[in-house]
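User: Okay, second chain of the day. Same drill as before: sequence in, C-alpha cells out.
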Amino acid sequence: MKSANRPNIILITTDQQRKDSLSCYGSPFVHTPQLDSLAAEGIRCERAYCTNSVCTPSRASLFSGQYVHRHGAWNVGMKIAPDTKLLPQVLVERGFRTHHIGKAHFQPYQPKAEQTRESTPDWDKIYPEFSGPYYGFETIEMSMGHTVGGVSGHYGTWVKERCGDGGAKFAQTRRSSVPFGGAAVDWELPAAYRQTEWAAERAVAFLQEYAAEQARIQVEEQAGEGRPFFLNIGFQDPHHPHALPPEWREDLDVERIPAPTFVEGELDDKPAFFRDVHEGSWSSKHPLHGAFPLAGQGRSGTHAGQIPLTDQLLGRAYYYRMVEGIDAACGRIFQTLDELGMGDNTIIVFTSDHGELLGDHGFWMKGPFHYEQLINIPLIIRWKGVLPAGEVQPGIVSLVDIAPTLLAMCGIELPADMEGKDLSAWLAGKGGSGRTRALVETVDDPHKIRVKTIVTERWKLSCYPGQAFGELVDLQQDPGELRNLWDDPAYRHIKAELYGDLLAELETSERRNERISYA
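Assistant: Same drill. C-alpha cells below.
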C-alpha cells in the first residue's frame, strides 16, 4: 500500500496500560477525549495482544516484528541484541528521519553506565551528551524508570534545569495503609515537570523543527518529495508507582472507580503458584522461584488479601488519572501535527507494551498471569483517507504485526526475519486476512516458570513447559476467566487442537538460514 508521498509515522507507546483505561473502549470512569477522537478518525482494535507481559520483551517484539523466542530478550534486565534489526533501522535505511522521545527500555535500567545505555544509577554520566544513534534512531531524547524513580536521562536534565536538583526536593507520600506495588503516592513535583508533559513538549518541538527544515529544503534545494519522519514517543505512565502531582489530585473522584474483580475461590483450579503469589507465600525459597524476583511482583510477593479496599480503590483511581494526563498530552501533539498541515499524511499508532492487573483476579501489576487485563491491550491506528474512520476491528492483532504493517503501508519490502503479519490491506478493507490466533510468551526463569499462551477467537490455552499444570479458558462462555478447564476430560479435544495451534505458531517462526544447494 502506497501513497503519493510516503507517509510520516508517529508511534506512541504507554507503559503498562489496560484497555479499559480509555473511554473509547467503553470505560464510564475515565475521560480520554483526545484518544477517543483519534479512534473516531481511525481504527480501534478490540483484540490486540502483547507478545509478553513485561516491558523489554514486548517492546522488542513491537519494534522487531519477531516473537520473544526469536529475538531472545525474554525478560527485563536484558538488552535487545544489536543484531536484531528494529523498525527504525529499516526506516532510516529507506530515507526516513528517525527520532525517539521518552521511554525505550531496550536495555536494562539498574546496571552501571558501562553495562547499559539506559542506566538510571549513572544516567548523568551518559546524558545529555549522548543523543544517538540508538537502535536505528538517528537522535534520541531519553527517559528511564517510572514516576518517582524516573527522573533521568534527557528528561532528568530538563527537570534539573527547572528545579535545580532533579526534583529530589519534592516530597513523596504513600497514601495506602499498607505497602503494595499499586499504592497511590502523592508526589509534589508539579504537573508541568512530569515526564508526560516533557515528552509532549519535546514532540511538539520536533514536529515544529521538522516542518521548518522541510520548508527550508523545499525552498533552497527545490526538492520534490520531502524526507518522511518516524517519531517514537514513549510515555512512562501509567506504570506503578501510581504517583500524582498536586494539580491532578484536586478533582479526583475515587467513588467513580470500580473495585477490583475477584471471586473468592477463583484461584482454586489455577496453577498453585498463583495462590502462592496472591497469599504472599512467594519468596526466594519457593521451588519455582527463579534467579531474580518475579517481574512486576517485587522482591517479596504481594499479599493482595491484606490490602484494604479503600487503598485498592485509591491506587486504581491514581492509575486512571495518570492515563487522563497522557490523553491531554497526546492532544497537544495531535493539534500541532494538524496545525503544521501534516495530519493527513501521518500514520499514528497508539498502543501499550502490556496491561496491568490492578487487583483483578487477586493480583496487582504484572507477571506470568495471562489474564485479559494484562495481555489484551489498547491499539488505535489512524491514517486519514487510507484507513477507514471510526471502525471497530474485532479481529485478533498482535504487537508483532505492527512493524511489518507499518513498513507495508510505506511501500517498503519486509525483512525476511520479521514474523509478524502485514495487516495493511486487511485493516484498510482491501482484502487480505487477519489473524486467527495470538501467541503470548512469558519466561520468568528459563529453568522455572515459562508460560506460552495461544489465544483464538473463543479459546485461550496456557501451557507451562516442564509442568503438569496449565490453563484452558472458554472466553466466550467465561469472559471473566473464572473456570479452568485444563483437567476437564470433556475438553480434551479442544486442548489438543489448541496445542496444535501453539506448535504451528512456534514452528513456523523458527530461525532458518538460507539453503543454497542440495549438499
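The longest strand covers residues 391-398.

User: Thanks, on to the next one.
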